[in-house]
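Please predict the structure of the following assembly.
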Amino acid sequence: MTSRERSILFIEDNPDDIELTLHALGEHGVRNPIVVANNGAEGLEKLAHMPELPLVVLLDLSLPKLGGIEVLQRIRANARTRLLPVIILTSSSEERDVIDSYHFGANSYVRKPVDFEEFHEAARQLCVYWLLVNQPPPMRPSLKDAPPDPQGKE
Amino acid sequence: MPGESRPSFGIESRFGTKELTAETTSSSRESALRAKIGVAAVISQDEELFEHLDVWIDLLHRVAERWRFRAQAGRLGRHSLVDTLQLAETLDAAARLLESHLAAPAVEAPQPPQPQDATAAILRHSEDRFRLLVDSVKDYAIFLLDPEGRIVSWNAGAERIKGYRAEEIIGRHFSIFYPPELLEKNHPAHELWIASRDGRYREEQWRLRKDGTRFWADVTITALRDEQGHLCGFAKVTRDLTERREQEQALRQSEELFRLLLEGIQDYAIFMLDPEGRIATWNQGAERLKGYQAHEIIGQRFSVFYPEAERRDGKPERELAAARESGVYREEGWRVRKDGSRFWAEITLTAIHDKDGHLRGFAKVSRDRTERRAADEAIHRLNQELAERVRERTQALEAMSVANRELEAFSYSVSHDLRTPLRGIDGFSKLLLEKYAAMVDDKGRHYLERIRAASQRMSQLIDDLLKLSRITRAELRWSRLDLADLAREVAEELQRHEPGRHVEFSIVSAAPTQGDPDLLRVVIENLLRNAWKFTNKKPAARIEFGVAPIAIAPGGDGRDGQRTYFVRDNGAGFDMEYAGKLFTPFQRLHDASEFEGTGIGLATVQRIILRHGGRIWGEGASDQGATFWFTLGEARR
């Protein structure tokens, strides 16, 4: 399976953002299946039922039920998903959110610009980098091979 | 013995000492008498002595008593206790002997009695002590007067007290001892008359010494009569009580002084209670404090001063009992004045005992502490109010911190949720423009562009607002920095960003200060950016950053010697009429079409300056440029 066939998990509650993001990804030729979850709990559930790990998780922070940071913590706490690349895609530029995200193991933090052109540009760069440039971890990571968790058990 | 009319009985030989011999050979009647005193007990034939036996008996008893007293009191001087008691016994024995003579019929007396052995022994002993007796009577002047008042005998005490020696005074009239005022009243004769009428006269009065000084004399004059009742003279015993009188007077005076003092004390009620608690004395302080006059209250029970309930409860009696048991009772409590009003009293009740330990009464000292109590209560009240205020303040602070947390949550929500719809508005407008361009005419496209511009502007507003809120909440990180360096950096950025513009920057070489570098950078950036923006229509734009000499800082009060910085431009300026709105968020003094902006920049600047403890104010005129002055407070920590 190539990385073009691997899915993308998109956890976002705002339908406008979902539509605009999907549109932007489509515009930039992303053909990977995109699994959309409308809240944190749904996102984790879908992740658990995916036979293969997604290439990347696009995670909003402000989510109903289970917030983005909690979703991130659970992803990192789970042996199966702990190496999964997670990109925070949010409207917030609060320092606290940025720090929390990196603290709990986010791989990237992107603030969604209001200006649609800027947003498009951001989406384009994300696709190029995470889908094409970046080398993802193996789909079924072996615990034996994994280095010790740098974050400890927080 | 020459000149002695009576046969001697052996005992007389004891008087053959040099001293007595000298006295007897002086052949004065007085010396003879003195010599005979000791012999009197056995010479009942001596008529003169026999006539005055009662005096001598009395004297002997008194002296014996005096010696006993001395022995008891331990005032023995050079004598032993046994000697002293023996002497007293001897004196008593002598007195009893004389008494037996007195009781014996005088007619049987003429024959000299055969000296009995026991009597002789006693007398020998007595004789031996006789000089001690005479010495002991140094405290008394003892002398005899003839019926006319002339002095016929003189003892050591008389000499000591009055200053005359025997040879000087014997034969003189005793009125010599009287001061003129008594002589004027013929007092000496009066005394003798009383003594001869009543047998005895006693008084305390002034007498004169030889040197003319006065002494206070206790005088007893006893008339001496023979068995037929004829007056044969007077025995006079005088004691000098001057010293005692002075002591008594001093005591009286000091007591009087003390009484006057007590009575005169205004601030304390001081009075005595008898053992049953009845008021015995009253001073002015008591009158003032309690409202009763002395005559109204003396004799009443002190419980009248207590409130009714305490009186019924028996508190006054308990206090007395407590003072009786432990000597002193102190308390503070309510007491009642005569008019029924209350006062807060501080009282001390002291039990007074006599020297035998019997309770004589109580001294009571009261003081009005109503004002102090009121003051104490006021302090207490103030403390409580203060505590209450602190509590309120703490609550307010807690509420504020809750409010702050809410504000934070609000800011977060704004940052997150308010922006999201804007992205939708902008994004879908853009998609419309792109994908359905053919279906929308120019006017429609214009509207869509307006929608996008509006949403982007709102996004900018939100970002600025968030920045303002963040600055309000951010903790200041103080460090040293140079505002001039900051200004140069910002100026370079501005020029790099718009290289087409020609603006002359004039920046002071150094403006070192202390503050939060990040926040002060926001200040300099905002002020210079504003200056840059508002000079964009000027062909020869000029922007200045400097430090004002305090003396010429316009509008500045130069307080605490704070340095005043300024940013000046020659741009659009502003109407001073609206200067008050410069720092209000969203208030703009220029049309959006002229100069863009959210109206938050100067509000942010002011907030940063205020957080540094400084001030900012602006000066300008339309089209004449603007100057912004600011100070920074003292560095903290």
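The interface with chain B takes residues 14, 16-17, 20, 23, 61-62, 90-94, 96, 112-117, 119 of chain A (CB under 8 Å). Chain A is about 40% helix and 15% strand.
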